[in-house]
Amino acid sequence: MNIKKLISILILVSLTSCGFQPIYSLKNKISYELKGIELIGDKNINRKIVNIAGLKKSEDKEDLYELTLNSQKEINVVSKNKKSNVSIYRTIISVEVSLKDENKVIKTKKFSNSFTYNNNSNKFELSEYQKNIEKNLTDKIGEEIIIFLNY
């Protein structure tokens, strides 16, 4: 047995026997329902975050919190070349989360992530790349929101 296999087995055994759990597993989704969810700003980003975080609106219970998501997406020009053509873009996604109880803010936080990338002469590929970047940034913010609301 070579040394790499031995090390792999030792790591696997130590992680499974110490109670290791992935931080973003399905078990760690928000463990409470919400009275209401108000979505302000970019609809696509808000919907993705609601799905990622597993937020659910419940009208059956009365002692629940209200959540407000206010999201924005910006695509900025960072740099231009000598011919004044865009050479570098930056996509910024910001989401402000507020948790309220009877109009009293319990906790609030603003999450923001950005990514800088080069322009592409093929506009279709650039558009697809920007959509992929938006998805990745939204996923990361969604995971951060899960942690924020759980703790």
What is the gyration radius calculated from CA atoms?
Answer: 21 Å
Uncertain segments are: 26-31
- Report the sheet-strand fraction: 35-45%
Instruction: Please write the CATH class name.
Output: Alpha Beta
H/E order of the elements? HEHEEEH
Give the structural class: alpha+beta
CATH fold-level name = Double Stranded RNA Binding Domain
Helicity level, as a percent range? 25-40%
What's the overall geometry? flat
How would a crystallographer describe the biggest sheet?
4 strands, mixed
What's the β-strand tally? 4
> What is the average per-residue confidence, as pLDDT, rounded to a whole number?
83
Q: Return the CATH architecture.
A: 2-Layer Sandwich
Number of helices: 3
